[in-house]
């Protein structure tokens, strides 16, 4: 067994690996970029090495710098986490050439599964069922278009080197195929450096069920399945284990196919075989097909750990050190049910756009496993994935675990950036999901209701007003007494783009009357705490002029300073950057006539592409940026001529 491990990653997965390594008595080394100098994983590790600039290409994708850091600190092994270089066979070979151990599969196994088209052909040879589709080398538009027609719509266009939903497009109508193909290729080229795609039949009412496998290079076991069907734009949102509706016969068939797939490539370490499953009725053994293999630890591995009692990172380290797989197949069993929800910094009301910001508060309820790589005070950077945490719960039954998940999400507190927390909570309480009626289209069908943000209550507005005036603490003995100032004050707040005025009257120590719209609210100090209309004041957080009130969901208010209030001159004529990013494509030109909805630019941010469209018909008056420019959120990009 080696004594020092370098973690070639950042964020929550780096912290996750460090925890297990330290529990095993091993020394850990972190690497970090300019943006991560004070990051949580850096402070947790025994040693840390700076490896470059904030952009991944200047740091976490620099295999040479990572290997040099390992050698300089005396590390004997490298754990890649997931993402970045975790599935890069050239990096694996470079690590081993340097005399270090790579904690993961061989370069040969990664290459075998690295391209979806080649992997599917290999699985067919091994007797694993695969989805009908085109996986050929000819990437001409004509061949791909014809293949889609022969397969039959709807079809999926998928990047052969893809993952995480990038470079993937669902096409339901032949007339949309050309645009979807161009978009998928562009995103695939950006994310993976490879624009090649494959075409697959899209399974109606599909479920995404994956099997956790673990191999020693010769034989393998499976640690049962996870259902990852709750997805938005092909990205997982909530995962669970075991899968709802799974039968013993189906589990044996899928587990057997997964083990067969792993053994066919001599797989070593933790990996995941992903299947697409027909969810139109009860699960059946002839209704699942191989989709891809992830030759690394998965983001959602904690739910498998919860139901099996296995620490997969410990297994990875032990097997990489030459030990056998710790448990045989017959020794593995399922205990209870587990869920994982991915908490992101993203603006749900703006189409789930990634968000940035400094976390003013971050707290999770007791009894919940929260795998995170950030703390209150940390910044969510535009350079990396905007995940804040994974919220994981485990219960004796699916119903109990789901209730725990709902409670955990309602009681999690985040301030300083917008998040998808309310969306996750609504999803955990969705009636169909509660019944186990899951498929990959569930979120899309009910997105309007799930993404709706509840309006702040009058009591929550009142709390924000009290915080704005500094009245949320213990009352002073002279509160309400004044010689020269009026007894009542007015507070102007902005909430979700709308302004609201609150009248606040301090009537004496421990007694405040507030009026929100037409609603009167009485705040009284009782038992060492404020109560509004008899109910306890909810938790809250103030950061500058921004106040977050933690109610059923977090409600954010901005205090408007009347001395600084100015008319906002903006109009619908200017197209602005919705987030920090790179202007990748710019099709607009001055003098060009455009129509509402026409794509004028593409902004690349957090590994994803976002099209910016004309808000109305008009003429482009001015293009304010150039292709390749790095812009901040709110930066003006294109201006249309004013409407007459």
Query: What does the main sheet amount to?
Result: 9 strands, antiparallel
In total, the number of strands is 40
In which order are the strands of the major sheet placed?
29-28-27-26-25-24-32-31-30
Beta-strand share of residues: 25-35%
Unreliable runs: 565-571
Overall description:
The chain is α+β, with helices and mostly antiparallel strands and 644 residues long. It has 17 helices and 40 strands. Strand 28 (529-532) and strand 29 (535-536) form a beta hairpin. It starts with a strand and ends with a strand.
Notable traits:
single chain, 644 residues, alpha+beta, 9-stranded antiparallel sheet, 8-stranded antiparallel sheet, 40 strands
In short:
It is built from 17 helices and 40 strands. With 644 residues, it is α+β, with helices and mostly antiparallel strands.
Blueprint (SSEs and pairs):
Elements: E1 4-7, H1 11-23, E2 27-33, H2 40-44, E3 47-52, H3 63-73, E4 77-79, H4 89-97, E5 101-102, H5 107-114, H6 116-126, E6 133-134, H7 141-151, E7 155-163, E8 166-171, H8 177-192, E9 197-201, E10 206-216, E11 220-232, E12 235-241, H9 248-264, E13 268-278, E14 288-294, H10 301-308, H11 312-320, E15 337-344, E16 346-347, E17 353-354, E18 357-358, E19 361-363, E20 369-372, E21 379-380, E22 387-395, H12 398-411, E23 413-415, H13 421-428, H14 431-434, H15 442-445, H16 447-451, H17 458-468, E24 488-495, E25 498-508, E26 511-516, E27 519-526, E28 529-532, E29 535-536, E30 540-543, E31 546-550, E32 554-559, E33 574-576, E34 581-586, E35 593-594, E36 599-605, E37 608-613, E38 618-623, E39 630-631, E40 636-640
Parallel strand pairs: 1-2, 1-4, 2-3, 4-5
Antiparallel strand pairs: 6-9, 7-8, 7-9, 10-11, 10-13, 11-12, 12-15, 13-14, 15-22, 16-17, 18-21, 19-23, 20-22, 24-25, 24-32, 25-26, 26-27, 27-28, 28-29, 30-31, 31-32, 33-40, 34-36, 34-39, 35-38, 36-37, 38-40
Helix pairs in contact: 4-5, 12-13
């Amino acid at each position: 067994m080696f004594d020092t491990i370098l973690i070639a990653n950042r964020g929550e997965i780096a912290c996750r690996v460090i925890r297990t390594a330290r529990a095993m008595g091993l020394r850990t080394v972190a690497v970090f970029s300019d943006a991560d100098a004070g990051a949580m994983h850096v402070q947790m590790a025994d040693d840390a090495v700076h490896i470059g600039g904030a952009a991944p290409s200047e740091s976490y994708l620099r295999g040479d710098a990572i290997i040099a850091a390992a050698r300089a600190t005396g590390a004997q092994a490298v754990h890649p986490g997931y993402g970045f270089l975790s599935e890069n066979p050239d990096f694996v070979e470079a690590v081993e050439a340097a005399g270090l151990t790579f904690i993961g599969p061989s370069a040969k196994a990664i290459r075998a599964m690295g391209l979806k088209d080649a992997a599917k052909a290999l699985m067919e040879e091994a007797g694993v069922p695969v989805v009908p589709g085109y996986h050929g080398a000819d990437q001409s538009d004509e061949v791909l278009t014809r293949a889609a027609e022969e397969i039959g719509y709807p079809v999926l266009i998928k990047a052969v080197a893809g993952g995480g939903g990038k470079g993937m497009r669902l096409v339901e109508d032949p007339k949309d195929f050309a645009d979807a193909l161009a978009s998928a290729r562009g995103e695939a080229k950006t994310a993976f450096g490879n624009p090649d795609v494959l075409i697959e039949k899209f399974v109606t009412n599909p479920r995404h069920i994956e099997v956790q496998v673990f191999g020693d290079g010769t034989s393998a076991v499976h640690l049962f399945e996870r259902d990852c069907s709750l997805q938005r734009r092909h990205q997982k949102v909530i995962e669970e284990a075991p899968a709802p509706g799974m039968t013993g016969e189906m589990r044996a068939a899928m587990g057997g196919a997964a083990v067969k797939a792993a053994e066919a490539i001599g797989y070593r370490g933790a990996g995941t075989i992903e299947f697409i499953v027909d969810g139109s009725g009860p699960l059946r053994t002839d209704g699942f097909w191989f989709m891809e293999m992830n030759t690394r630890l998965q983001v959602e591995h904690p739910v498998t750990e919860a139901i099996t009692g296995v620490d997969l990172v410990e297994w990875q380290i032990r097997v990489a050190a030459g030990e056998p797989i710790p448990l045989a197949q017959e020794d593995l069993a399922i205990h209870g049910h587990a869920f994982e929800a991915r908490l992101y910094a993203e603006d749900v009301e703006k189409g789930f756009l990634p968000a940035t910001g400094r976390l003013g508060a971050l707290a999770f309820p007791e009894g919940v496993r929260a795998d995170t790589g950030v703390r209150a005070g940390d910044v969510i950077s535009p350079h990396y994935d905007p995940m804040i945490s994974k919220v994981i719960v485990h219960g004796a039954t699916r119903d109990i675990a789901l209730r725990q998940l709902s409670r955990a999400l309602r009681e999690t507190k985040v301030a300083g950036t917008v998040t998808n927390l309310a969306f996750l909570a609504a999803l955990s309480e969705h009636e169909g999901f509660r019944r186990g009626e899951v498929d990959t289209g569930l979120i899309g069908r009910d997105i309007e209701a799930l993404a709706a943000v509840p309006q702040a209550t009058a009591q929550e507005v009142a709390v924000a007003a009290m915080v704005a005036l500094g009245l949320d603490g213990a009352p002073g003995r002279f509160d309400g007494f004044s010689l020269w100032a009026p007894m009542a004050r007015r507070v102007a707040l902005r909430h979700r783009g709308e302004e609201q005025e609150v009248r606040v009257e301090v009537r004496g120590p421990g007694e405040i009357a507030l009026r929100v719209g037409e609603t009167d609210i009485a705040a009284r100090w009782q038992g060492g705490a404020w109560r509004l209309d008899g109910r306890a004041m909810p938790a809250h957080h103030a950061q500058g002029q921004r106040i977050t009130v933690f109610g059923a969901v977090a409600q954010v208010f901005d205090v408007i300073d009347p001395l600084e209030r100015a008319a906002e001159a903006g109009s619908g004529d200017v197209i602005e950057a919705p987030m920090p990013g790179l202007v990748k494509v710019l099709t607009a030109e001055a003098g060009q006539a455009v129509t509402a909805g026409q794509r004028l630019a593409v902004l690349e941010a957090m590994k994803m592409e976002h099209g910016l469209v004309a808000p109305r018909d008009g003429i482009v008056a001015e293009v304010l940026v150039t292709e390749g420019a790095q812009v901040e959120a709110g930066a003006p990009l294109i201006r249309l001529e004013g409407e007459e």
